[in-house]
Amino acid sequence: MNEILICQSCGMPLENDGLKGTNEDGSVSDDYCIYCFKSGAFTREMTMDEMIESNIRHLDEWKKSTGVEMTEEDAVKQLRLFLPMLKRWKT
């Protein structure tokens, strides 16, 4: 079974190349999504807290696609644990 890559900034699954960002040379990035990374740079400078706020805006869509019920409070707690493990947020 193939492992699905996830964006190392926001955590979105990178299920196909169309969702992947681009490196400076125009090649496809296996690390970041099109929303977070374009032409070798992050599309938005933000803090991890701002990324959490951005992700929470998509919570209803995420719940529909996964079938997982989660409160906004629980989602924020999970993101505070999950995001620091991604390349962009590792300290």
What does this structure look like?
The structure is a single chain. With 91 residues, the chain is an alpha+beta fold. The chain has one domain (5-85). The chain contains three helices and six strands. A two-stranded antiparallel ribbon has the order 1-2. Strands 3-4 form a two-stranded antiparallel ribbon. The radius of gyration is 13 Å and the shape is globular.
Largest sheet: 2 strands, antiparallel
The domain tally reads 1
Order of strands across the widest beta sheet? 1-2
Structural class of the helices, strands and pairings?
alpha+beta
What is the terminal separation in angstroms?
Answer: 31 Å
Low-confidence stretches at least 5 residues in length (pLDDT < 50)?
none
Number of strands: 6
Helical residue percent band: 25-40%
Query: How would you describe the shape?
Result: globular
Number of helices: 3
Query: What's the SSE pattern?
Result: EEEEEEHHH
The residue-averaged pLDDT reads: 93
Strand content: 15-25%
User: What's the Cα radius of gyration?
Assistant: 13 Å
What attributes does this structure have?
two-stranded antiparallel ribbon; 19% strand; alpha+beta; globular; 91 residues; 31% helix
Short note summarizing the structure:
The chain has 91 residues and is an alpha+beta fold. It has three helices and six strands.
List the helices and strands and how they pair.
Blueprint: E1 5-6, E2 13-14, E3 20-22, E4 28-33, E5 37-38, E6 41-42, H1 48-56, H2 59-66, H3 72-82
Antiparallel strand pairs: 1-2, 3-4, 5-6
